[in-house]
Amino acid sequence: MDDKQLQDFAKRISSEGDRGSNTELIPAATVVLLRDGVDGMETLMLRKNSKIAFAGMWVFPGGKIDAEDGSGSEDMEHRARIAAAREAMEEAALEIDPASMCWFSHWTPPALGNRRFATWFFAARAPAGEVSIDDGEITESQWITPQQALAQHRQGEIELVPPTYVSLHYLALHTSVDAALAALDSQPPRYYATHIGASGDDLVAMWAGDAGYDSGEADTPGPRHRLRMGKEGFEFDDSGSNENPG
Length: 246
Fold this sequence. Notes:
Elements: H1 3-16, E1 24-37, E2 40-48, E3 58-59, E4 62-64, H2 76-92, E5 102-108, E6 115-125, E7 138-144, H3 146-154, H4 162-171, H5 177-185, E8 190-193, E9 195-199, E10 202-206, E11 226-230, E12 233-237
């Protein structure tokens, strides 16, 4: 995150405060597709068009849950599974069985802006077949190990949003698809309702279990469950959390 991004984000926080708490929460879903590669387990990452939401970011296949996804069902997890599978087909031309997905987390962003995407995160073994992107919403794709993705982010080669970064952090604990899916499936889904604070010149995303979570004061001493975002990059610390799925 460069100086301008930090400044822009900080301005939004100071000007909006909690006013975004009543903004629309839009249900969304994403699927982390995994395969075993020569260098270890790989995940499919897609780069968003610079003119749409999450402009230029590298993400997993996903998007908002449409009215037609699981139409008639009030089970949001069911609808989220269908939406994630549909997005994988639309964005990467890969067919995924919704029932095969492992739901491992749910993310609610901080109260900023006019819209917030409350997102179900699933993981699944990637099917055979070639990835094909539309070069519209998605401009690039790559199969990459979680470790390589995190390294590229540290080097400033790719941009990631906090949910993607944290998901990659946990995936990097595993070397095979079997191991990753077994670990994710062995624990209940983790819920991340993000609170944003500041520490010095850095922004800090905090989640339940962090000492500063309730107050929003990032410098509060105590347990840590946070992502520090500064000019030198991201630093994830879950030393005070019981949510480590590894």
